[in-house]
Write a structure and sequence with these properties.
The complex is a heterodimer.
Chain A lengths: L7 H8 L3 E7 L5 H14 L3 E5 L10 H12 L4 H10 L6 E4 L2 H5 L8 H10 L3 E3 L9 H10 L2 E3 L1 E2 L5 H10 L4 E4 L13 H10 L6 E4 L5 H9 L4 E4 L1 H9 L3 H18 L8
Parallel strand pairs in A: 1-2, 1-9, 2-3, 3-4, 4-5, 6-7, 7-8, 8-9
Chain B lengths: L4 E2 L2 E5 L5 H16 L2 H16 L5 E3 L1 H7 L2 E6 L9 H14 L4 E6 L3 H12 L4 E6 H6 L1 H9 L3 E5 L6 H15 L3 E3 L10 H9 L1 H14 L5 E5 L4 H7 L7 H7 L11 E9 L16 H4 L1 E5 L1 E6 L24 H9 L2 E7 H15 L5 H14 L15 E6 L7 H10 L14
Parallel strand pairs in B: 4-14, 5-6, 5-8, 6-7, 9-10, 9-14, 10-13
Antiparallel strand pairs in B: 1-2, 2-12, 3-4, 11-12
Helix pairs in contact in B: 2-4, 4-5, 4-9, 5-7, 9-11, 10-11, 15-16
Classes of the chains: A alpha/beta, B alpha/beta.
């Protein structure tokens, strides 16, 4: 019925509903460890995995992911090495890259997004999320993504008005990334009240909705799914584990299990006949 | 509505959460700044006159004119309230925020000049104000930190990165992404997403408008060239905007007076050459801030523009002895004017800027900001007694306007320290100070 039927990401969310989407920063603390972490998240039940390709000016990130990006840049992570890592990963979960627009523009000459997208497709990535690229400026990247069969995922913010909402929902592919609260990324202790309002007004759009920004626990995941989300996106809470846990591989796997189980708890019980 | 781009530069590359705020700001800019002469603009001009001290003078610099064997005029933005051109924009935006019904002001600052101007404007218009400032800049611009606090602003040091302007902008954007509903972000230069570059230019364009009238009155004609220092570019665009239409092509087309063959006004944007124009890709360092001269196209802080960046797209840490020029990006309209050939980019290094600082202080009794000293340093390189030694050629003509964007009191500590490290011809014996 819509373009989503061709989308590996959309299909994955529908088949694994409610989906767990896990984010970590690639190269934090090294690309070799990122490989182990991705495999752990995959084993733990993450249905989609977002890998952050670090950019020196991450204006949408809170302190946790800023610090991860710094560690990754200090370790010397480059787009070339990032794509090599991705090309060698064999996960059940499709992979997405999350990065800032300048990184996409500089992959080839003449500030053209096409070479980045072409390399991303070749490496096996299924989608791209760009926090500093609103719908208005997305023409060239969307064209390249369509040509290479990648989903360009757009973010819906609490401040997005109805007029913009239509144009974003028309353009987003794979799913709509619903920003649960104003501000930057970062783990929080509760689920924002704005989440329920945001999901309510997205109800009429057929594409899956996944909620991120501040989600850190199984109970949050349950609440978000019960409010109508098709997926939950967790980033900073996982990045915290990488920075602080003595055994990040085990910790990531069990955190993924907790979050996935939480999300499943949120699915409303089918009514008894 | 105003255009969001200047040729291929500009645009609105920001998180979705900020897009509605930009639309709201664009609407307010159209309504008040562009179409409310009797209301907003009248109040703005009155306040700029009574509180700010406009118009600022255009002064003939007698001893510089003698030294360079041509007429040199200085546009004295250092005499504006606060000691720099920054108030033109800060007061405009804080007043606009008030008209928009916003309750809180935030701003980034590099040298501290924009921060102090915003703090003054916020105090003047009774708005709460928070200023983000990189840690390095806090340390090298202490007097400005105290001034901001005196005016009631909260000053928040930013520890990330090298602790200069770009980190301060990142932090302010993050604050704005959280507080956008009741807060206005007073961006300090002609950078950022549309409508900021256009709006800030409009508030600053009073510099060039006044200078254009003043030079015609004093010298009887338009200048051959205008020189202004360029960091983010607010002083540059403010100085140039009124002169942009005075290009060689346009003037020769309409000017039949047969005065001089060359009647266009040349525009020189003088950037910080730092210690070298080479970049260190490995370390991610550019020991300069010469974005227009050496940068490549990319997206930073909401706009497509020229940037100092690695081939991968990481933004370089820039450098200049002058904190106010120390930025890896530049306003998109300047990138466009340079691409079109209307503005000529130039650069002057730390040493030449320090020399020019001392020279103006000694010869004219004006202590300029280190930023402004770059424009004056370029004059020396092109037209000074040793001009032949430098590989710089420019036809500045016989009548030159140089914008003194600010005064140098804030830089004294830096200047004393940096002068001691160097052998600078025009410098006084600095050892008498506290050895």
């Amino acid at each position: 019925m819509n373009a989503g039927t061709d989308s590996e990401i959309e299909r994955t969310i529908r088949e694994n509903h409610p989906a767990l989407i896990a984010y970590i920063t690639a190269g934090d603390p090294s690309l070799e460890e990122t490989r182990e972490y991705v495999e752990a998240l995959d084993r733990g039940g993450a249905d989609l995995i977002e890998l952050g390709l670090p950019f020196s000016e991450p204006i949408a990130e809170g302190p946790t992911i800023q610090a991860a990006i710094n560690r990754s840049l200090e370790a010397g992570t480059t787009p070339g090495a990032f794509f090599d890592l991705v090309a060698g990963l064999e996960t059940e979960a499709p992979l997405l890259v999350m990065t800032y627009y300048n990184m996409i523009l500089q992959h080839g000459p003449d500030a053209d997004p096409e070479p980045f997208v072409s390399r991303a497709a070749e490496a096996g990535l299924a989608g791209i999320i760009v926090p500093d690229l609103p719908a208005e400026e997305s023409g060239p990247l969307r064209k390249a993504c369509e040509a290479h069969g990648l989903d360009l995922v757009f973010i819906v913010a609490p401040t997005t008005d109805d007029e913009r909402l239509d144009s974003i929902m028309e353009r987003t592919a794979g799913f709509a990334y619903v920003q649960a609260r104003l501000g930057t990324t970062g783990a929080r202790a509760d689920v924002s009240g704005a989440t329920h309002d945001s999901l309510a007004r997205l109800d009429e759009y057929p594409i899956p909705k996944a909620v991120g920004f501040g989600v850190s626990e199984g109970d949050h995941a349950a609440e978000i799914v019960s409010a109508g989300a098709d997926g939950v996106i967790v980033g900073s809470a996982l990045v915290d584990l990488i920075a602080e846990s003595e055994d990040p591989v085990a910790a990531l796997e069990s955190k993924a299990r907790e979050l996935k189980a939480g999300a499943e708890r949120g699915v409303p019980e089918p009514e008894q006949p | 509505m105003s255009e969001a781009t200047f040729g291929e530069y500009g645009g609105q590359y920001v998180p979705e959460a900020l897009m509605p705020a930009l639309a709201e700001l664009e609407d307010a800019y159209e309504r008040y700044v562009r179409n409310n002469e009797e209301g907003f603009m009248h109040e703005f001009r009155e306040r700029m006159a009574d509180f700010g001290g406009r118009p600022t003078p255009l002064q003939r610099a007698d001893r510089l004119s003698e030294r360079y064997d041509r007429e040199i005029y200085l546009k004295r933005e250092d005499l504006l309230h606060g000691g720099a051109h920054k108030l033109n924009n800060a007061l405009g935006q804080v007043l606009l925020a008030k008209y928009m019904g916003k309750e809180r002001i935030i701003a980034e600052t590099g040298a501290g000049q924009h921060g102090t101007a915003t703090a003054m404007a916020a105090a003047h218009l009774d708005m709460p104000c928070e200023i983000y400032m990189g840690r390095t800049d806090v340390n090298r611009q202490r007097p400005n930190v105290y001034r901001m606090r005196m005016n009631g602003a909260e000053v928040t040091p930013v520890e990330a990165g090298r602790g200069t302007l770009k980190e301060a902008i990142n932090a302010t954007m993050r604050d704005w992404a959280t507080t956008v509903e009741n807060t206005h972000y007073v961006i300090g230069s002609v950078v950022g997403p549309h409508p900021f570059p256009t709006m800030v230019r409009d508030f600053q364009s009073v510099i060039g408008r006044e200078a254009r009238d003043q030079i015609r009155e004093k010298a009887g004609r338009l200048p051959d060239s205008v020189l202004a220092c360029a960091g983010g570019g607010s002083n540059t665009m403010g100085s140039f905007h009124a002169f942009v239409p005075d290009s060689v092509e346009q003037r020769s087309a309409k000017d039949s007076s047969g005065q001089r063959p060359r009647d266009g006004v040349s525009l020189y944007a003088v950037e910080a050459g730092g210690s070298s124009l080479e970049i260190d890709e490995e370390e991610g360092l550019a020991p300069n801030s010469a974005t227009l001269s050496t940068g490549t196209d990319g997206v930073l802080h909401g706009a497509m523009t020229k940037l100092l960046q690695s081939t991968d797209g990481q933004i370089m840490e820039s450098h200049s002895v002058s904190a106010g020029l120390d930025y890896a990006g530049v306003g998109p309209e300047l990138s466009h004017l340079v691409a079109e050939g209307r503005v000529t980019p130039a650069s002057v290094g730390d040493d030449a800027a320090l020399e020019a600082f001392h020279r103006l202080s000694r010869l004219e009794g004006i202590i300029p900001a280190l930023e402004s000293a770059h424009a004056l340093g370029y004059l020396e390189r092109v037209a000074g007694p040793d001009a032949g030694e430098y590989d710089v050629e420019a036809d500045l003509g016989d009548l030159v306007v140089v914008t003194v964007s600010g005064r140098g009191d804030k830089d004294l500590e830096t200047v004393l320290e940096e002068t001691e490290k160097r052998d600078i011809e025009a410098a006084p014996d600095v050892e008498v100070f506290g050895q």
